[in-house]
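Inverse folding, one chain.
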């Protein structure tokens, strides 16, 4: 199993659920990532996560019953033939995981860079989510304040509960 798929396995079904949601919204990168994960697991003789198996079964049913082609059924193209837009939840999850990967530091886009000037952590996050580094950086910058605010509120609630 390659590094990206092993990271998906470590994060568990939550990422799979998010990818499935995105594939159903006809976002081809998410659909390809799910299909690649399924292919690697099947080739290795490993069982598929239950939610991925259900998604595959649903896609195959659509191919047999109603979809104009397999690409539509699997979420590789939408009805207009274009990729769908990632949901806010997907963008926030990417920002949250990237924040964790960088040790909770902000603005780490220029430290430890590849030839394109993209940070290694950002590139790894982008690969994990099946987007390019520029998109990952945009999602991070647009959603990190929301992620940090949710964490702050969660910490406050946890502290209040511990005091009681």
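Residues assigned per position:
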């Amino acid at each position: 199993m390659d590094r990206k798929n092993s990271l998906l396995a470590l994060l568990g079904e939550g990422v799979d659920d998010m990818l499935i949601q995105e594939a159903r919204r006809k976002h081809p990168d998410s659909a390809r990532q799910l299909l690649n994960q399924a292919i690697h697991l099947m080739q290795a003789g490993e069982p598929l996560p239950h939610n991925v198996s259900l998604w595959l079964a649903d896609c195959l049913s659509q191919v047999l019953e109603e979809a104009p082609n397999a690409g539509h059924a699997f979420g590789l193209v939408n009805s207009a033939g274009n990729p769908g837009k990632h949901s806010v939840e997907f963008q926030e999850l990417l920002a949250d995981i990237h924040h964790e990967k960088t040790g909770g530091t902000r603005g780490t886009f220029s430290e430890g860079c590849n030839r394109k000037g993209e940070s290694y952590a950002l590139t790894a996050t982008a690969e994990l989510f099946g987007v390019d580094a520029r998109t990952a950086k945009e999602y991070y910058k647009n959603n990190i304040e929301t992620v940090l605010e949710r964490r702050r509120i969660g910490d406050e609630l946890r502290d209040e509960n511990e005091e009681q």
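The CA atoms of residues 92 and 146 lie 8 Å apart. The two ends are 46 Å apart (CA to CA).
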